Amino acid sequence: MATYGSDQLAALADPSRRAIFEALRDGPRAVGELAADLPISRPAVSQHLKVLKAAGLVTDRAVGTRRLYRLEPAGIAALRAWLDGMWSDALKAFAELAESTEEEQS
């Protein structure tokens, strides 16, 4: 079973998917537009978008004969919440270690 946030992290682990994800920060784009700016084919961009969509990081909608992809705020918020939780846990563990080291030195 995937942990909360791990699907999004796995999806963004690939450099091409990160490039697509970052390109969508500027607004919705079609597969052809994304492919024109990347060193990968349109079918490859489509496959990467499928992974990003499955991870909840992008959504799409039909506009005429094209599909426009955009970032999914809820998926990004879920990833951020997971990362914030990891960061909080790491800071808490560091604080506990620092306090126990200080007590040992006293």
TrEMBL record:
Zinc as UniProt keyword: no
Keyword DNA-binding: yes
Domain of life, per lineage: Bacteria
InterPro entries registered for this protein in UniProt: ArsR-like_HTH (IPR011991), HTH_ArsR_DNA-bd_dom (IPR001845), HTH_MetalResp_TranReg (IPR051081), WH-like_DNA-bd_sf (IPR036388), WH_DNA-bd_sf (IPR036390)
Cross-referenced PROSITE patterns: HTH_ARSR_2
Span of domain HTH arsR-type: 1-91
Keywords: DNA-binding, Transcription, Transcription regulation
Protein known as: ArsR/SmtB family transcription factor
